[in-house]
Each structure stands twice: as C-alpha cells, then as structure tokens.
Design goal:
two-stranded parallel ribbon, 2 strands
Length: about 80
C-alpha cells in the first residue's frame, strides 16, 4: 500500500494539487493537514504517519535526509518516526 503526506501552511492554500498528484500515483492512504510550522510537534498528521512507510522508503535506498525533505521535516523527526 502506498502512503502519502500532503501539507500546506495556511488555510488560504489548497491541498488539491498535491492530492491530485498522490491520486495519480495511486496512493491509497493520505495524511493531510493545513497547518503552519517547521516543527513536527505541531503537525499531528505527520506524527500519525505510518513508520512502516518510512521504513519501506529507507529499504528502497532512500536516505533519511531525502525522506525528511519529501515530508518537509527534519532528519531527526524521520529517525523518531522510525523508532516508533
């Protein structure tokens, strides 16, 4: 199962483009939020993101820094999610 994460910073922005792109890639489960902040502590949907999905990305050869860039979070957050 493909899992995705979509986020915009303000309620004035739309998730539509990100959701359309995820749907085009047949992503089955999407975590989404309209919330500002760099800190994962302030992003509840990111904290709910399935650690298994991150483990699969890592197993495919993707480095934690690249995963973090894709999720819009710090590498430390990726490591914390992997430890869950």
């Amino acid at each position: 199962m493909l899992v995705g994460y979509a986020r915009v910073s303000t309620s004035h922005q739309s998730l539509d483009v990100q959701l359309e792109q995820l749907a085009a890639h047949q992503v089955e489960r999407v975590f989404q939020e309209q919330i500002s902040g760099k800190s994962a502590a302030n992003r509840p949907q990111l904290k709910r993101f399935d650690p298994t999905a991150i483990q699969e990305l890592q197993a495919s050869g993707m480095k934690p820094r690249a995963i973090a860039r894709q999720l819009g979070c710090s590498p430390a957050t990726v490591y914390r999610l992997l430890e869950q």
